[in-house]
Amino acid sequence: MRFRLTPRDVAFFDLFAASGSQLVVGADLLAQLIAAPPPDRLRFAERLRDAEHEADQSAHEIMRRLNQTFVTPFDRDDIYRLASALDDCMDAMEAAGDLIVLYQVDDLPEEVGTQVATLQRAAELTADVMPKLRTMGEEVRAYWIEINRLENEADRAYRDLLALLFQSPKYQESPAAVIEMVKLKDVIDTLEQAADSFETVAHQVEALFLKES
Amino acid sequence: MRFRLTPRDVAFFDLFAASGSQLVVGADLLAQLIAAPPPDRLRFAERLRDAEHEADQSAHEIMRRLNQTFVTPFDRDDIYRLASALDDCMDAMEAAGDLIVLYQVDDLPEEVGTQVATLQRAAELTADVMPKLRTMGEEVRAYWIEINRLENEADRAYRDLLALLFQSPKYQESPAAVIEMVKLKDVIDTLEQAADSFETVAHQVEALFLKES
Amino acid sequence: MRFRLTPRDVAFFDLFAASGSQLVVGADLLAQLIAAPPPDRLRFAERLRDAEHEADQSAHEIMRRLNQTFVTPFDRDDIYRLASALDDCMDAMEAAGDLIVLYQVDDLPEEVGTQVATLQRAAELTADVMPKLRTMGEEVRAYWIEINRLENEADRAYRDLLALLFQSPKYQESPAAVIEMVKLKDVIDTLEQAADSFETVAHQVEALFLKES
After folding, report:
1. Chain A residues inside the 8 Å CB shell of C211
2. Are C118 and C195 in contact (CB under 8 A)?
3. pTM of the prediction?
């Protein structure tokens, strides 16, 4: 049973809800980026950078309130860890989009689409659960269970891509082909980091649930 | 002088002891993996994945108890950091074994054996010290001093391997040889991360010792 | 308004001031290393390693005091995070210098100089602000604003270098040229990590300012 929320508490939950929504915006922009013809991708990367700046401001505002509020709705360190993890998700998604354009990796292997689709789904679930932290009911359990399943899916896609990059003769034809492989590895590593960050968010939500329920 | 341990406290120490034992199992499986003929390695990688799942459950159980226990034997954040660091050791060892098989790096340089041997030794020492956290006597000092020495040893092996990978003409013969180098670098980087994680465990044990003694 | 500092408090601030000064020493050695003719670089790398050992001892002493002092001038976790972030800056700078020598990357692209110059500037600002944490006046604000600007500068240099490494025909001429590219990417990645670590220091200083003012 939760205490009645104070206006200050409401501010924290609103900020976490905003962070969740920003992750959905970011993941969707990343999906549009990889689906776009290469010449059109810069536009999506720029919008993704704007989304990352907004997410950065939400995280910053949470930290500011954390350091200036005497009584917080959750343990201070838990709020810090949750805000940091949400910020890491956005940073990794923005970095991946940025690298795809910077590296001019025009020809993305199909399973990169799987990596990004799992990030979209993870972002949606995260945006859905943030408001539920107020009441911390049983439905919060479903969140981390599903994120864990998605992270396993992202992991499988990542490993399939590693096998492709390192085994396919396509990337061994010439020095230029090896460079293409190194670029792609950087991109898929960053997408995997984003998936791992969503799992960290899920662990933090689980920790909060166990403490508050 | 420590307070008499409650049954709840005993549960924490038993879980840390279990985590320590799982690290020994994991390190030994990794050693068997690299010593095995390449076609036999998959079997060890699968067993290593099972060991990692068990370690994950121990870490999860520690976190669960941490969030649901009012009085903990150590500071809550210290328990969290120790459990996270132990989990990181196992994750890195499992990842290294997984990559060796996924990448089909059949021909491992000799000093990879040194990296893995130091991890085995670090795991044994860690398994030994976990039960000693109950009484936190002077013998705990020897633990972090020896882990630090092992980490320096792992570091030297890692740097020798980097020099080999980047200087040896063997990896410059063809695009395929460069790809082999990139695979091996990924493997040795992951083994170095495992060594660094053991050092983080040692730092955390030292912090606990300084607080509790 | 800050409470009158106790001798124990003074010890913490002196240690943070020492850490700041060590970062200046380290950044300057790194700058001298990259400016030196390749045969002379080993000497600077060895001095950089010594500087890193000293920084390690400062961090260690802060942790020791943290775990043995009942009343600390700041929240315990904040001191821990600040000390860790300062240590990460030095570790990354030392690692970069070490790799440049180990990898024998004789021919460093020009913008590596920009990366290192921003680290020097960040180190100077950090050394300047550490003593100001005692009084935590308004001039502390300028610190994190300027570090953020420097980190953006470092980021631009890093991205320009990535574009160079991955687009320039120079690194696609032969397998050996690709290996050179992989080495350089490792070096610039490590320098970027150092810049990120200074930003983490700045975030931590900002958090302390918000709490204490």
Report:
1. 67-68
2. yes
3. 0.93
